[in-house]
Design a protein that fits this description.
Layout lengths: L11 E5 L6 H12 L2 E4 H9 L3 H8 L1 H15 L5 E4 L8 H10 L1 E6 L2 H8 L13 H19 L2 E4 L5 H14 L20
Parallel strand pairs: 1-3, 1-4, 2-3, 4-5
Length: 197
């Protein structure tokens, strides 16, 4: 059964959430389990821009970056049997939210600002966090973006502190229960015991 207006033949799963919320890590493992393609919008953007997102932000500004990001999202959400990891700010544009919600089964990996701070405090590659008080910045971003992630999502999974494998299982369970994926198509992460004869 299709979920909330997403077409029956739609086989794009998009992960949304805050920077450092695990979208790329969980997305790669999810794609592996489903035997689907994985695409990371930020990686595609960096390849296209020919530089890091951080240096593009600094030289060209956020608006120009968001324009290019929107065209990449339009392109990638048309793919089938694809798990898509999106940039943390992809939901800021209404057009992106519309595309993601109508073309993909969207999973919001929800992480608290404190949890994100623990993971990201030594990461200098994220332009929005290069500020004197990154935790305050994360709280501010979370307050602004959490309602947008909720608006675009068909499913919400709280990341808490479980392992990547547990998170992937939680996402798969949500998708199976909603009839998005056939449980028979999901390979078990555990090999069945061998029977000796």
């Amino acid at each position: 059964m299709p979920h909330d207006g997403v077409g029956e033949d739609q086989t794009c799963i998009a992960l949304v959430g805050m920077p450092g919320g695990g979208k790329s890590t969980v997305g790669r493992q999810l794609a592996k389990r489903l035997d689907w393609h994985f695409a990371d919008t930020d990686a595609v953007l960096e390849k296209r821009l020919g530089c890091s997102i951080r240096s593009f932000f600094e030289s060209q500004g956020e608006d120009h970056f968001r324009d290019i990001e929107a065209s990449v999202i339009d392109e990638l959400t048309s793919s089938h049997q694809t798990v898509l990891g999106t940039g943390g700010g992809a939901v800021l544009r209404e057009a992106n939210r519309r595309l993601l919600h109508s073309r993909c089964h969207v999973v919001y990996l929800r992480s608290s600002p404190e949890e994100l701070f623990r993971r990201l405090r030594h990461d200098v590659s994220r332009p929005l966090l290069q500020v004197p008080d990154p935790l305050a910045r994360l709280r501010e971003l979370f307050d602004k973006r959490d309602p947008l992630y909720r608006e675009v999502a068909h499913f919400i999974v709280d990341t808490g502190r479980p392992s990547v494998a547990s998170l992937v299982n939680m996402v798969l369970m949500q998708l199976e229960l909603a009839g998005v994926i056939d449980p028979g198509l999901v390979p078990s992460p555990v090999e069945p015991p061998r029977v000796s004869r």
